[in-house]
Amino acid sequence: MAFEYAPAPESRAIVDIKPSYGLFINGEFVDGTGTSFKTVNPANEEVLAEVAEASDADVDEAVKAARRAYTRVWSRMSGAERAKYLYRIARIIQERGRELAVLESIDNGKPIKESRDVDVPIVAAHFFYYAGWADKLQYSGYGSTPLGVAGQVIPWNFPLLMLAWKIAPALACGNTVVLKPAETTPLTALLFAEICQQADLPPGVVNIVTGAGDTGRAIVSHPDVDKVAFTGSTEVGKAIARTVAGTDKKVTLELGGKAANIVFDDAPIDQAVEGIVDGIFFNQGHVCCAGSRLLVQESVADEVLERLKRRMSTLRMGDPLDKNTDVGAINSGEQLMRIRELSQVGDAEGAERWEVACDLPTKGFWFPPTIFTGVSQAHRIAREEIFGPVLSVLTFRTPSEAIEKANNTPFGLSAGVWTDKGSRILSMANRLRAGVVWANTFNKFDPTSPFGGYKESGYGREGGRHGLEGYLKGADS
Ligand code: NAP
Ligand code: MG
User: Fold this and answer.
1) Do residue 182 and residue 33 come from a single domain?
2) Do 467 and 425 share a structural domain?
């Protein structure tokens, strides 16, 4: 039975989007010497603001400010003092949580219930967690000596969350930061810069330089950057690895994924269906660890697919600011094109497409939740990251076949296992080549838990005690 809900939009009155933004260097917003670009609301293509594009000279200024702050202030401060700033930032994030969530949904296109209930709370939790480490680094196992200036480049799918994953451990360990948000989602990073001012963070400890790929390149190749932390595509990650090869820079790379979500015939099917939906349609599937390959045991495949389609038909798609919305807008026209192209490859390869029948808004960038059945391992839709709300379904008969198929990928970021048997969970987790394995759940994040990949999904860990390693010189120095 079809029924309608009244719209329940969150008010955007709480955010104050300025017509134009400069760069945040040495504690102040400055004009920059480069050109500018526009950021849009992907749900309706409204231009939100004009944002400065940092030139090489601007990046150089930011790195100099970070170096000064590092040498004169931040690396000399006790861990307990640094922690006070991190706790203050964490509390301000909580206080301004609604503002951050609304702005994130406007600039990124993700549903408000996700930015409000997932992204922003985990961002605050990350700062609280690493604040706790700042005065306990001698117990980290990685020494307590910071590296210096960290150059950090992040993608558009979790703009604030990726910022928190980068900035919180860097500052806790005594490093200073130059960070570039993605071109399509700069606004919450700029609001975070205001929060740094509000927290009285010493100038230069955090610098935010907006721009596109060239600005990112200028950061990672800058000779006075000691550490490069990157989250994004495997292709750009490889280019960065080449750039820093032969230098003293320490590098962590969080790259793409093609996670298997494995459903055994003894799994609680309704719960598994929720996990499949969460695995691939959370954040429109713009998730590096998305469960984009469903591996379902042959004996329950028909039942799982039938219930999955029924559940997908209840997903509400539309205005990201509406509190009822489950699936929001695709982040950019460019990303929408990539999703369309790879899906068409799926059609051409002979897989069968099924999508939710729904009216898509006429403006903005939208793609309906979609599944492909009849997918084989050789298909490109089973091998390449689609980074959108598109699920490829494969089947298996035995646990060994599931392992073989799950590991048959150049990536190794995450995996999910759905079964009633604890012993099977443990044996699967041991044999899956993935940095994170979720059991009877999916896409759960906690600041205490390390996250990262194998193989082409990158190297280094973010989160937890392990996340400190990338920002410290090591136990022996
Ligand atoms: P991307 O194109 O690699 O961009 C990531 C960031 O790097 C952006 O800020 C981008 O700038 C910048 N950049 C582009 N070219 C660069 C270069 N040559 N040197 C330095 N920086 C450069 O990736 P994306 O399309 O935005 O993000 C999607 C990808 O990120 C997916 O593959 C996804 O799996 C991965 N991801 C991984 C994780 C993880 O934790 N493993 C988390 C989230 C996303 P502009 O975009 O502004 O041009
Ligand atoms: Mg935008």
Assistant:
1) yes
2) no
Q: Whose CA is nearest to atom 26 of ligand 1?
A: 155
Residues with CB under 6 A from ligand 1: 153-157, 180, 182-183, 212-213, 216-217, 220, 231-233, 236, 239-240, 254-257, 288, 385, 387, 413, 453, 458
Tens digit of each residue's pLDDT (9 = 90 or more) over 309-348:
999 999 999 999 999 999 999 999 999 999 999 999 999 9
Do 88 and 52 share a structural domain?
Answer: yes
Distance 127 CA to ligand 2 centre (A): 25
Our count of domains for the chain comes to 2
Alpha carbon of 182 to ligand 1 centroid (Å): 7
The neighbouring-strand residues paired with 251 are 228
Q: How does pLDDT run across 395-453, given as a tens digit for each residue?
A: 999 999 999 999 999 999 999 999 999 999 999 999 999 999 999 999 999 999 999 99
Residue whose CA is closest, atom 42 of ligand 1? 288
Segment 94-149, tens digit of pLDDT? 999 999 999 999 999 999 999 999 999 999 999 999 999 999 999 999 999 999 99
- The answer to the question of residue 452 being in a domain is no
**Nearest ligand 1 atom, CA 183:** 47
What stretches of 199-332 show up as alpha helix (H) in DSSP? Answer: 213-220, 234-244, 269-281, 298-312
Cα-flanking dihedrals φ and ψ of residue 262, to 5°?
Answer: -105, 120
Query: Ligand 1 center to residue 139 CA distance, Å?
Result: 33
Residue 3 lies inside a defined structural domain of this protein: no
CA 432 to each of CA 262, 408, 456: distance values in angstroms, whole numbers, following the listed order: 11, 10, 15
Q: Find the domain containing 439 and state its range.
A: 260-446
Please report whether residue 423 resides in a domain. Answer: yes
Q: Is residue 210 part of a domain?
A: yes
Quote the CA–CA distance of 327 and 281 in Å, as a whole number.
7
Is the same domain home to 406 and 463? no
Residue 322 bridge partners (DSSP) = 9
Same domain, 345 and 373: yes
Give the number of other CB atoms < 10 A from CB of residue 427: 14
User: How would residue 3 be classed by pLDDT, with cut points 50, 70 and 90?
Assistant: low
Maximum Cα–Cα distance for the chain, whole Å? 67
